[in-house]
Amino acid sequence: MNAAADGEYAICLRIVDGTVGLRTDRTVVRDVAERVYGRLLSEPDDATGWARIRGGVFVGGGAERILPHWGDVTSVEGALEAMQALVAWGFLLERRVTAVRGAAVARGAWAVALVGAPTAGKTTLALCAVAAGWKMLADEYVVIDRASGRVRAYPKYPLLRSQALDLLGTYDAAALDDALRVEWAGRAGVTYHGVDLDRLFDRRVWGAGAALREIVFLGCAGDEPVAGDPTACAVRLARSMLTGGCGGDRIVEAMALARRWPCRVIERAAPAAMVAALEDPPMARRRAPGA
């Protein structure tokens, strides 16, 4: 894409020489990018306008690619959707990783990927796990390095529904105000909060990455267990994957994931019970990092 076309964007990412940049001419996007993706972005370069995405999320490639977005970015919700779409596009162009919609938490050397439908409670469970002493690795996209099997840290500020914060029940309004990055009313009257978890918990919450131990699907009553059934795992994973192409190619990549790592379902229950299920997986599932 040439420079003239680049100038017509609302927001775009630039991938070149192993770095990723963000540039936009829209105030609302700059504000949302800083408030929600601030842990991933450096300050924009005064000469070029590009802000670098840091933290090892992307490795990038040798050829320069500019990924534009011309959608509606006049609202916070529109700006967030644009950022999500562009970051997802960046993952599609990087062949070193598998990216899955979900959340990830870590305990010591182990990481657990949480996968499920948009309202399955992935972020809520991750938040409850963090409250119990786990480290946060990702909320939005789980990025798995294909060679090492490690989950990369993707420290975007998580977007929490009011109900997720209510489950903790230990924070007063002042603590939430101090941690709040952005707030808006989404669809169906649901209020979302972009929260700085380090401030909310008054400690360092984000981990630097960890070896993937297992993939956990958040189910509900009636879901069939998928433990020990790679085909069923692959079908569910394919629905949430960003990478792997489409159709049969995506199923092939999902099957490779399901054969490499154990998968299981955790049914919806009280938060403490779900965190306890993460803490004590079946012995048959445990593997050493790198195995």
For this entry, give a set of tags.
291 residues, Rossmann fold, 5-stranded mixed β-barrel, 4-stranded antiparallel β-sheet, 13 strands, 33% helix, globular, disordered N terminus, disordered C terminus
> What is the CATH topology of the largest domain?
Rossmann fold
Looking at the overall shape, the CATH architecture of the largest domain is 3-Layer(aba) Sandwich
Counted up, domains total 2
CA-based shape = globular
Write structural notes for this entry.
The chain is built from 10 helices and 13 strands. The chain is an alpha+beta fold. It has 2 domains: 3-93, no CATH class; 97-282, Rossmann fold. The strands form 3 sheets. Strands 5-6-12-8-7 form a 5-stranded mixed barrel. Strands 3-2-1-4 form a 4-stranded antiparallel β-sheet. It has a 3-stranded antiparallel β-sheet with strand order 9-11-10.
Summarize the structure.
Helices cover 33% and strands 28% of the residues. The chain has 291 residues and is an alpha+beta fold.
Layout of strands and helices, then pairs:
Elements: H1 3-6, E1 11-16, E2 19-24, H2 27-37, E3 51-53, E4 65-69, H3 76-93, E5 97-107, E6 110-115, H4 122-131, E7 135-145, E8 150-152, E9 159-161, H5 162-168, H6 173-179, E10 180-185, E11 191-195, H7 197-201, E12 209-219, H8 230-240, H9 248-260, E13 263-267, H10 271-279
Parallel strand pairs: 6-12, 12-13
Antiparallel strand pairs: 1-2, 1-4, 2-3, 5-6, 5-7, 7-8, 8-12, 9-11, 10-11
